[in-house]
Write a structure and sequence with these properties.
By secondary structure, this protein is α+β, with helices and mostly antiparallel strands. The protein has 3 domains: 100 residues, Rossmann fold, CATH 3.40.50.20; 70 residues, ATP-grasp fold, A domain (Dna Ligase, domain 1); 244 residues, ATP-grasp fold, B domain (D-amino Acid Aminotransferase, Chain A, domain 1). Helix content is 34%, strand content 27%. It has 15 helices and 20 strands. The strands form 5 sheets. The protein has an 8-stranded antiparallel β-sheet. The protein has a 5-stranded parallel β-sheet with strand order 3-2-1-4-5. It has a 3-stranded antiparallel β-sheet with strand order 7-6-8. The longest helix is centred in the middle third of the chain and has 17 residues. The mean pLDDT is 95.
Length: 452
Amino acid sequence: MKLFKKILIANRGEIAIRIIRACHELGIETAVVYSDIDRDTLPVRIAHEAVCIGPAPSAESYLNIPAIISAAEITDAEAIHPGYGFLAENPQFVEACTASNITFIGPTADNIRLGGDKAKARRIMMKKGVPVVPGSDKPISDEAEAMETAKRIGFPVIVKASAGGGGKGMRIVPEEQYLGKMYHMAQKEAFAAFGNGELYMEKYISDMRHIEIQILADKKGNIIHLGERDCSIQRRHQKLVEEAPFVLSTPKFRKKVGDAAIKAARAMKYRNAGTVEFILDSNGDIYFMEINTRIQVEHPVTEMITDIDIIKEQIKLAAGSMLSLKQSDVKFSGHSIECRINAEDPESFIPSPGTVSLFIPPGGHGVRTDTAAFSGWKVPAYYDSLIAKVIVHGRDREEAIMRMKRALSEFVIEGIKTTIPFYLKILKDRDFISGTYNTHFLDNFKKASASA
């Protein structure tokens, strides 16, 4: 299958660099869009072409569909890769690409719509026999219905935005007396974040791990998975540390959760790369949570243990290639950990924009740093505070932890505050080292730190 001659990257920062590198290794020319404040960034420097699409605010640049389509047309790009965030999960953007005869590198518009409609996705999974957390089988119309549903499934419950993501429009309701307040707070937040206040409800499982499966699917409906990732260490439902494989994984567990992910993807007629997310409870039962219809921030940990370049696979699949791998071809080796380095105060997590006066990333065997930062770069206040990802690989988890400690200790970033000291503390935590943590890790970690 012939690949594209030129691809436009409709994103910025480390993911834009990641995509550009994959394209160049495939012999594909690249064009990148940028806002005026990103004029002197690394993606602009290393892409073959760069097009300014507007001022710094995202709504006027990276979310400006007509400007991005125009950039693809004037650079003669045959395809657009959206990365993650911004327009990556916008079905209207996919349709705009199609209408302009430009290939969208990602799933179909229908896949994205279904992935964004959590309540509808739940119903489809239930029909296809994919296990889901007990809850509402349709959107909740009002507070009275919310109360009826909560009493049926039993407190505690969690209300979630049907169009949600990133923890927005989500509230845990521990007892009946809090339902009305939490319901309306979630509804208001969901509407503000997504323009859609529709909610659904699930039984809240407190002692849980967040396990996800990377999948690849071609246009003929062939689907494989690349194993599981553990993303349980989170702050306000935002992932901080990711690992692959899950520390308690066994061949039997991987087959169970992998088969469930493929079943879910097949139910959606999924295409290209995606991630099926599951809740794992204390009894070892798994429940479908959602499907992310884009490349994930944490995809490198899967690449490290499988030696499969997921971005290259995305591009090949979008060009019409069939999967070159069967499930039996996917082999797993060692252990990988990723830490997201943000330009934030490590204690308060308040963003810390400013000029990076000195930037020296770590290196050495088994260390990968995905970043677009450099000495002299000005971290803008307009976008997500992620400035780098440190990913390590070791023969086992113990070696991976030691390697991450070494890498973070070497990492020099001056001029701004970063979350590196926070991660160095986590890596020394007893629960983290033992692998016995769950999604409440950070709450317990803070309590332990305060009492120390």
